[in-house]
C-alpha cells in the first residue's frame, strides 16, 4: 500500500498572512517608509529642485503650477519643511499662482501622511494611548475634527508631520481633516508665499507685512499651544 504524501500544514499560509498584516508589522513598514523618506531628503535635498534655478525652465504655465503642487505634496509628506517650499512657490510663480500651488501641495502632503498613518499605524498605536493628556487630545481630535484641524493649521505651533500622524491615529474622518487643512493653512502659507515673491525687494511693504504676519502668527501659536496644554491636562479622561 502506498502511504499518502505528506501535505503541508494547512494553517501555515493563513498564519503567515496574519503576521504580515498584523498591526505591528504594518507599523514597522510605516517606520521604514518614513525613515527612507527622511534619508532621501537628507541625502538628495529634493527641495533644492523646487527652488529658483533648479526648476526646469522648459516647464511653464498652468502645467508647471500643477507639477509643482504635486512635487510639493510629496516633499511635504517626506518631511521637507513647508516654509522652504512656500518661499520657493512664491519665488517661482508669484503670489497668486504660488499660493494655489502651495495650498494644493499642503493638502496633498497632509492627505498622503494621513492615509499612511491610518492604514499602517493606527491599529498598533491606538491601544497605547494612555494618560489624561493623551486621551483628552484624542477625544478632542475625534469629536471636533474640523475645528481642531483648523486651529492647528491656523496657529503653527504643531509640526506638520506630527499633526498629520496624530490625526490619523484618532477617529477623525478624512473629509474634516482635509477641509480643515485646506482652509487653515491659507493665512500662514500666503505670508510665506508673498515673502518669497517679494524676496528681491526685502524693504517692500508686501514683504514687511508678510514677515510681520509670520512673526505674529508664530507667537500667537505658542500662546495658544501653551494655554491648550494646560486645558488638556485639566480635562477629565474619557
UniProtKB/TrEMBL annotation:
Species classification: Bacteria, Bacillati, Actinomycetota, Actinomycetes, Kitasatosporales
Stored Pfam families: VTT_dom
Protein's cellular compartments: Cell membrane
Membrane topology of this protein: Multi-pass membrane protein
Keywords noted in UniProt: Cell membrane, Membrane, Transmembrane, Transmembrane helix
Transmembrane intervals: 59-80, 92-116, 150-167, 174-195, 207-226
Family as reported in the entry's similarity comment: Belongs to the TVP38/TMEM64 family.
Protein's UniProt keywords contain tRNA processing: no
Positions of the VTT domain: 80-198
Keyword presence, Membrane: yes
Organism: Streptomyces tamarix
Protein name: TVP38/TMEM64 family membrane protein
Amino acid at each position: 500500500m502506498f502511504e499518502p504524501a505528506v501535505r503541508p500544514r494547512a494553517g501555515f499560509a493563513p498564519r503567515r498572512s496574519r503576521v504580515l498584516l498584523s498591526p505591528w508589522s504594518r507599523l514597522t513598514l510605516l517606520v521604514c517608509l518614513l525613515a527612507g523618506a527622511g534619508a532621501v531628503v537628507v541625502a538628495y535635498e529634493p527641495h533644492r529642485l523646487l527652488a529658483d534655478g533648479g526648476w526646469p525652465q522648459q516647464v511653464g504655465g498652468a502645467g508647471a503650477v500643477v507639477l509643482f503642487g504635486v512635487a510639493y505634496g510629496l516633499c511635504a509628506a517626506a518631511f521637507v519643511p513647508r516654509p522652504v517650499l512656500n518661499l520657493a512657490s512664491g519665488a517661482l510663480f508669484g503670489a497668486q499662482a504660488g499660493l494655489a500651488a502651495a495650498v494644493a501641495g499642503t493638502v496633498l502632503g497632509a492627505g498622503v501622511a494621513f492615509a499612511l498613518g491610518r492604514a499602517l499605524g493606527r491599529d498598533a498605536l491606538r491601544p497605547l494611548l494612555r494618560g489624561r493628556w493623551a486621551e483628552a487630545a484624542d477625544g478632542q481630535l475625534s469629536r471636533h475634527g474640523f475645528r481642531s484641524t483648523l486651529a492647528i493649521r491656523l496657529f503653527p505651533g504643531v509640526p506638520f508631520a506630527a499633526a498629520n500622524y496624530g490625526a490619523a491615529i484618532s477617529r477623525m474622518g478624512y473629509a474634516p481633516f482635509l477641509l480643515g487643512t485646506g482652509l487653515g493653512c491659507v493665512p500662514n502659507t500666503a505670508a510665506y508665499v508673498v515673502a518669497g515673491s517679494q524676496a528681491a525687494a526685502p524693504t517692500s511693504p508686501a514683504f514687511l507685512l508678510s514677515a510681520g504676519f509670520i512673526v505674529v502668527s508664530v507667537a500667537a501659536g505658542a500662546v495658544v499651544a501653551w494655554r491648550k496644554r494646560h486645558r488638556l491636562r485639566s480635562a477629565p479622561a474619557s
